[in-house]
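Subgroup meeting minutes
Present: P.N., E.W., G.H.
Scribe: E.W.

1. P.N. recapped why we're keeping a running log of single-chain structure predictions: easier to compare across weeks, and new members can see raw inputs and outputs side by side.
2. G.H. added today's entry (301 aa).
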Amino acid sequence: MDNTILNAKPVELRRLPSWMKRKKTESEKVIAIKRIIKEKGLHSVCQSAGCPNISECFEKPTATFMILGNTCTRNCRFCGVPTGKPESLDELEPLHVAEAVKTLGLRHVVITSVTRDDLADGGAEHFYKTITEIKRLNPDSTTEALIPDFRGDSDSLRTVLSAGLDILNHNVETVPRLYPEVRPQADFQRSLNVLKNAKLLKPDILVKSGLMVGLGETEDELKDVFVSLTDSGCDILTIGQYLSPSVNHYPIAEFITPEKFKRYEILAKECGIKWVSSGPFVRSSYNAEELMNQIRNESNG
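Output recorded in log:
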């Protein structure tokens, strides 16, 4: 599973440093968005993975839709999304997502998914159908796909890119040394190849990736990753604090201070990544619309 949008259990919340504490509210708007998602039979990664930013994002409103069900075929130790035998594909899901986008009036839409290694194409065709339906019903909305690695299959990647999305996102998540413990079914180079191939297949697309920090990585290791991402054509990078979903998941090694997050941002830009969002609460799709607007303004300026 390639999502970094995680939360902590109540037992851990008492140990959070002051800069990581955030109140959650249930305004009428937040409740309404949850109701629309439920009525359409959809999943948002905001809810499925317990994102700490959910109230803020739903209030805007923004939402990240998780397609291909709510059960992942992989068992990454950082992720709070359920794992096991996935359900059958919902053929109406692409239409229902597009309808929800229209109802919510979303101007920038992020589509992600669980990893579906049980499907021949990893769910790429379902991504394609969802994005094209969104564009059909919401022609003025920009689209971003946060995809799994599709086991490195270039045809699956080509299928998603052919939908005409604006941003292709795939998270490397952590440094290579930690992959065996944190992402045992993934491969760092394979994830880099997803980004590199996306840029080769569609040079005009924005390529994005994300990192969690606080798992025990070093600054030198992060710098090496920043350089590797730059060499792979990554335009946008998000860096956020890892929060363990439960005591059974990978433990937090360190809470990164806001000052250190700023240093990581500067370092990533020095390594060649043009747009970097770095902070304790930053997640792959956090403030994605604002970032899209920033990129548009800078590109037009």
